[in-house]
Write a structure and sequence with these properties.
This protein is about 50% helix and about 5% strand. By secondary structure, it is mainly alpha-helical. The protein folds into two domains: about 45 residues; about 50 residues, no CATH class.
Length: about 110
């Protein structure tokens, strides 16, 4: 786990470098920072900020009449703020649904 004080310091430095328009080498040289340490923290912060990968496959809806024993309306439709919908079966894992919603909503 990254120490919060160091995380705030390095997040600020990475942001300042990106906003400055300077190369990493020039930015670090001007502040007396080792370039390797800057890249190390930039990578660590990116890893902390990156959510776990969740694969999503978009498929055409099955509009054919169902002939199985499942009841009509045995699915759950989740309407998203971007106008899209997710349709899942009631037994769909809740933690997967939360992860899927986080990814889909963050892309809108």
């Amino acid at each position: 786990m990254i120490q919060p004080i160091k995380q705030v310091k390095w997040r600020s430095l990475v942001s300042k470098q990106e906003e400055s328009g300077q190369s990493v080498a020039a930015f670090c040289r001007a502040r007396g920072l080792p370039e390797s340490l800057f890249y190390y923290w930039k990578k660590r912060l990116r890893e902390v900020a990156t959510p776990a990968f969740v694969e999503v496959q978009v498929a055409q809806p099955d509009l054919s009449p169902r002939r199985s024993g499942s009841a009509v309306g045995a699915t759950i439709e989740v309407r998203l703020s971007n106008g899209r919908s997710l349709i899942v079966a009631p037994e769909f894992d809740a933690s997967h649904l939360r992860a899927l919603l986080a990814v889909v909503e963050s892309e809108s």
